[in-house]
Amino acid sequence: MTIRVIRACFAILCMFAIPLSYAAAPKAQSMGAFAALSDESKQCATCHKDLNPGLYQQWGKSKHYGANVGCYECHQADPSDKDAIKHENFHISVIVSPKDCSNCHEAEVEEFSKSHHAKAGQILGSLDNFLAEVVEGAMVFNGQSPAAVSGCWQCHGTEIKVLENGDLDPTTWPNTGIGRLNPDGSVGACSACHQRHEFSLKQARRPEACGKCHLGPDHPQKEIYEESKHGINFFAHVDEMNLSSPKWIPGEDYNSAPTCATCHMSATRDLPITHDVGDRISWTLRPAISEKVDASAIAAGKKVKPWEERRADMKNVCTSCHTSPWVENFYEQFDNLVILYNDKFARPGKALMDVLTKHELLTAAQFDEEIEWTWFYLWHHEGRRARHGAAMMAPDYVQWHGMYEVAERFYIELIPQYREIVEHAEKEGKTEAAAEANKVLEEILSRPEHAWFSGNEPDSVKAARLKAQKDFKARYSSDSK
């Protein structure tokens, strides 16, 4: 037996050899080992070790290898499967779907299927997808937009299509989007997070695993994490993170910092692993106006895990390293930032856009008018950055990449563009529509939080601010001497 096999087998055995003191935290289902590698997989390996040596070596380092799970165990297909092909006298499928993985990892797939990740493929037909298909792109690649194929769909997933000759449509494959719609009817791609063919715990637990999709101008979680104290300490002490530990419990296996997986998925001393990444999230920070994560389900008459329970589970993760008062105060800060964004900018902005839409003061087409881009930037980019920055403790994303840009967009772009549209409506004789639109704006700007902009601040408030500015300049001048 080779050293590699011994090491791999040892790793599998370690999954089951967890000390009794850790029994309080249930673990995800683990795959048992087969007695020997199947004849079919032996035949696959004989060719692929020469044809695809990198793939073969990755498999050779995996726990699958140590458990005698080979190519055929994952890729075997029924001849009636939509994507089944005949290859070297075997019926196989190129795509390994969650349905295939569930043969050994049933609990993980069931949890994933309940998650928001599993719904990511529903972006098809959304406003975001309209941008990639129409505004940015054109349907010139087998009836699809290259911008959507190589952009949106690679993170969100797409419907995998099989051509008449049995080949996979190149507009839909390769694709490891998290919400991929597979030919066998299953949803998702385990390989979106667990890179094939090694399926390394270490790789899946690092923040880069999530950073493939969660980065950039509209949801920069990776950059936010890197700015936070958590990210700073992770990269400073990554060699102490014990990332390959089978159980990987904060406060026991590591203590430097959490990663994305720590907070959203991994076990604690009290909680089991979960593949439902929203199971511990209390706010949804994705839409224009944030709401508690269970609000939509409740409105639809569905019963889901309440946001209070989700938050309690996230606090359980936090208290692995932080005291309860620290955690409670953090959530006070986070909640108040979300509420500020909602009440000062998001709800007013939506009210303005709604009244323009109601009276057909905008065209039916999306993104053909400047104000539509302005509103999209405000909530989809800057508003998300501010909210996610607060959620993950990145102050620069809350301030300069977030609320500062939200405010600039609202006061200096959205309102002037709104007024211009209303003035144009008045000139066209749409007096009733213009009157209602002006009334909505006047009501918004009459609120105390907008008084600085409308010029209606009390003199005492103006005087206090001027004094504070004068005192600052005096301190600054004194410090510079």
Automatic annotation (TrEMBL):
Residue ranges of the TM segments: none
Any one GO MF annotation of this record: oxidoreductase activity
SUPFAM superfamilies: Multiheme cytochromes
UniProt KW keywords: Signal
Cleaved signal peptide residues: 1-23
Keyword Nucleotidyltransferase: no
Span of domain Cytochrome c-552/4: 101-161
Gene3D superfamilies, alphabetized: Hydroxylamine Oxidoreductase, Chain A, domain 1, Hydroxylamine Oxidoreductase, Chain A, domain 2
Protein name according to UniProt: Hydroxylamine oxidoreductase
Organism: Echinimonas agarilytica
